[in-house]
């Protein structure tokens, strides 16, 4: 059951291929250095595909460790590269392997398989092929999510996977509502726990509730307005109870969901009125200025930062615009819906998010970026700063920083002598 000698794990060196720019081709990382040697791109592509074929074969191995390692290697490749044609030819094989690993594997293998399913749909985009994948995997994911005997980590990964895959592929409104109902049945148990003084629903389920809530929120952003109104009426009065949860991640997830619900509510009705606004803003303000000594400093800092933004969204209808850079392009995140979508895909793509924003047609369509910007080699060369220029810039910046700090030190020294 071991790996064949000819198949090596997908390495950082493999992942770096094509991550510098979407038009640099399949080349060796050494080619990105100035004066790097020329590399046979076709041979590099063939070598990569050979490795990936080996990993796909190993997902059927008898050894659970080997299967999991193969799944993780495929995840690394899918998150860092666009492999549409390669995957298109093998999508049914991949789907069968993922289904088998989710059904029969243990917790870690199930998590890896669910993560690979997300990336498979991200690669394929919103086409008929992705719909076929979702029709196969959707029922399996729902079964694991609702299975109380399955591990919490596996259920959590499947909840995230179900939400993302449904967001990508489904044009069937009935399937969308069915998926949202499945996720609602999970995270609404957190409401019951808050009302139950005996704490029947144990705290180790919190991570599952968070994943289900975030996946449900993502799907809410693509719902028709009449359904959005129904969901807001159903959950807006219950969600504030989760702000008192002991778990920081749950408090943050509930706060950001509230901000998004208020944003959607005001889009559907400019005169939207929330009855318990004063009570809610008091609770948000307390979290934005929390100074409890029993909480870690890092947690308090993160909580205050998030809830300052949430408070501004609820009270002043304001959103702190963020800018994301990828290659020569810029994208502005200027609303909670966009932030929720970006954060979700950033979580599954990791360091490959920038590359996919440049090259992935589906993601560019989601964020309304238009077709990929194709740059020729000459343009890329003119954009690239030489090593000598970079050295001069860093030296100048270092000197300026040293002078500024020296002035501050001098002022502090003078004040000290005066007193």
TrEMBL record:
Disordered, as annotated region: 1-40
The Interferon-related developmental regulator N-terminal domain, residue ranges: 19-315
Record domain Interferon-related developmental regulator C-terminal: where: 360-413
Record keywords, A-Z: Developmental protein, Differentiation
Gene3D superfamilies: Leucine-rich Repeat Variant
Pfam families: IFRD (PF05004), IFRD_C (PF04836)
Keyword Membrane in record: no
One GO term of the biological process aspect: cell differentiation
The keyword tRNA processing is annotated on this UniProt entry: no
GO terms under cellular component: nucleus
Family: Belongs to the IFRD family.
Record note on quaternary structure: Interacts with PSIP1/LEDGF.
UniProt protein name: Interferon-related developmental regulator 1
Taxonomic lineage from the root: Eukaryota, Metazoa, Chordata, Craniata, Vertebrata
């Amino acid at each position: 059951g071991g790996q064949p000698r000819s198949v090596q794990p997908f390495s950082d060196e493999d992942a770096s291929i094509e991550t510098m720019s979407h038009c640099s081709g399949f080349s060796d990382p050494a080619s990105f250095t100035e004066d790097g040697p020329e590399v046979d791109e076709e041979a590099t592509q063939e070598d990569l595909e050979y490795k990936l074929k080996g990993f796909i074969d190993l997902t059927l191995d008898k050894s659970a460790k080997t299967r999991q390692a193969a799944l993780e290697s495929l995840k690394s490749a899918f998150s860092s590269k666009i492999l549409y044609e390669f995957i298109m030819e093998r999508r049914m094989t991949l789907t069968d392997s993922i289904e088998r690993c989710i059904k029969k594997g243990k917790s870690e293998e199930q998590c890896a398989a669910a993560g690979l399913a997300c990336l498979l749909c991200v690669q394929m985009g919103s086409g008929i092929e992705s719909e076929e994948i979702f029709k196969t995997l959707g029922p399996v994911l729902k079964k694991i999510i609702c299975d109380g005997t399955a591990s919490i980590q596996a259920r959590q990964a499947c909840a995230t996977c179900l939400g993302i895959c449904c967001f990508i592929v489904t044009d069937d409104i009935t399937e969308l509502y069915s998926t949202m109902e499945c996720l609602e049945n999970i995270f609404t148990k957190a409401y019951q726990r808050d009302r139950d003084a005996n704490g029947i629903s144990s705290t180790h389920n919190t991570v599952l509730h968070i994943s289900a809530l975030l996946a449900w929120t993502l799907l809410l952003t693509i719902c028709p307005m009449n359904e959005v109104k129904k969901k807001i009426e159903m959950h807006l009065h219950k969600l504030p109870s989760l702000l008192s949860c002991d778990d920081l991640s749950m408090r943050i997830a509930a706060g950001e969901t509230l901000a998004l619900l208020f944003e959607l509510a005001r889009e559907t009705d400019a005169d939207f009125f929330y009855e318990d606004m004063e009570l809610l803003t008091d609770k948000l303000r307390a979290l934005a200025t929390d100074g409890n000594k029993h909480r870690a400093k890092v947690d308090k800092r993160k909580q205050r930062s998030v809830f300052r933004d949430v408070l501004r969204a609820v009270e002043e209808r304001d959103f702190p615009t963020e800018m994301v850079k990828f290659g020569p392009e810029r994208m502005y995140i200027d609303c909670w819906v966009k932030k929720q979508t970006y954060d979700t895909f950033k979580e599954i793509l990791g360091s490959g998010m920038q590359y996919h924003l440049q090259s992935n047609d589906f993601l560019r369509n989601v964020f309304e970026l238009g077709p990929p910007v194709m740059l020729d080699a000459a343009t890329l060369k003119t954009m690239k700063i030489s090593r000598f220029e970079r050295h001069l810039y860093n030296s100048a910046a270092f000197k300026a920083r040293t002078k500024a700090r020296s002035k501050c030190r001098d002022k502090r020294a003078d004040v000290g002598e005066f007193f």
